[in-house]
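Morning run. Coffee first, then this:
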Amino acid sequence: MTDQTAQNQSAQNKTEQGKAGTRGSAFITGASKGIGYEVARSLTEAGYAVTITSRNEAEITEAARKIGGTARGVVCDVRDPAALEREVSAHTEAFGGLDVLFVNAGVGNFANVADMSIEQWQDVIDTNLSGAFYTIKAGIPALKKRGGYIFTLSSLAGKNPFAGGAAYNASKFGLNGLSEVLTLDLRQHDIKVTQIMPGSVATHFAGHTPSDADAWKIQPEDIAQLTVDLLNMPVRTLPSKVEVRPSKPPKK
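And here it is:
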């Protein structure tokens, strides 16, 4: 590479970085509230430009407004691979590339196998597992261009089955397997993959409303801090699976 070519490449990289933010850009699914929102807010504070997604237009628009900066809020259903390809493409166009993909969108339907409807099963698997696959598949081409990081938001339910958790357990067990394969598929492309597996988190998941009674739980901002910390790890080191638990749950 000639000096002039190197200078041109450096200038181009700086231009792309300038479009994206001081550290690059991140695409985060399921981010109108809870973990996804806090991750987006923390990454914005750390110097990333972000795109956040949700199925609810009003909620995602308000979330982007609250995050501020160059944050983009878009309506996107992760069960729709074409929509994900379209929105990831729009993200790379807006910010000059993609550096972080945070796969967070998820739902929970809980019932024993005999009582669970086909529709409930499909909703969980299509969102939590197939939706994760579609999100990652849409993001890989952009990530390969300059390396990056994929986070999959799994759960301790991805290794610990519980009664009534057929669909949710299956989706998270599957997501963990997908994440482990991704590490092997992508490590030579300078793409890191970490599966984050929290226990009880104080979010709106499955219709829950956070309250003071949730003070003992992991808070969404704790997962956001963990994400930023992982991004700051040396390039040579990959914490591929991180289990996170409340430090002092209530006595039973």
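The chain has one domain: 23-244. Good start to the day.
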